[in-house]
Description:
Layout: E1 2-4, E2 7-9, H1 20-34, H2 37-46, E3 51-52, H3 53-60, H4 64-76, E4 80-82, E5 87-90, H5 92-113, H6 115-119, E6 121-122, H7 128-131, E7 141-144, H8 152-162, E8 166-171, H9 177-187, E9 192-198, H10 199-204, H11 207-214, E10 221-226, E11 232-237, E12 241-247, E13 256-260, H12 263-277, E14 280-282
Helix pairs in contact: 9-11
Amino acid sequence: MIEINGMVGGGIHGVMIGTKEEKSGVQSTIQLVACSALRRNLLVSLSEGDKPLGDIRDELNVSSTTAIHALRDLEKGNIVLQDENKRYGLTRIGEIIALNLINFMNAINVLKKHENFWLEHDISGIPEHLLGKIGCLSDSIVVKDTATDIFKVHSNYVAMLKDANEIKGVSPIFVPEYPVIFEELIMKKKADVELIVTKEVLDKIDKEILGKISDSKNSHLKLYAIAEDVKAALTITDRHISLGFFRLDGTYDYSNDLLSYDKEAIEWGKELFEWYLKQTERVCDVR
């Protein structure tokens, strides 16, 4: 928990800033890096590598005087330095601050861009450490059903599956069409599939189809069952990530999916899959 000027805030694993000097240092650094658009842009720019003043000036479209003034402020805070070749770069502290600033800006971007999506769904299926990396989803879109295309989300999802060579999925919901699609992907396309399903979903899957898919030493299916109450539907392929949630009233929202083709988003999805995988048991006998 962080306490500054008597105001208390923070999350589950916050940190108490004890002394007045520590509080003052935190406040001044936040003000230095976050309260000026120019200084924020300088940090983002220099995170790409060291640059001479001319490149910085042209990239940010500011005068040399304006850029130098902001750079000197950052130098005083030990965030930026200038080398013997007159090139500006980030200090070790500056690199860490810039990394976290960029992550924060990306998080704000995805939260505001899809504001209703996050506000209207139960996102408790995302663990805290991955909520902290939510900015990885900044390059994403929300696919929605419309009045003229009420199966848009479903059609888009099926097309995504059929385009995949590798699939990792977590599913707390059952759709009768999906086992047939996975049968075709595994048996004909030889796609590598890892699925985590709840016990309830497992009980609903056609055992004949499941047995056929799994009845091979070279089966491309790895199936896991999870006893926990899963609150997210996740699919990661070699090209996409799809993420769906339950509404706040407890019903699953089939009409909205978050979708991304971005590599960083896909890696985030793999981390979420691995987090769920640790809570599962491998399903060996499916007949």
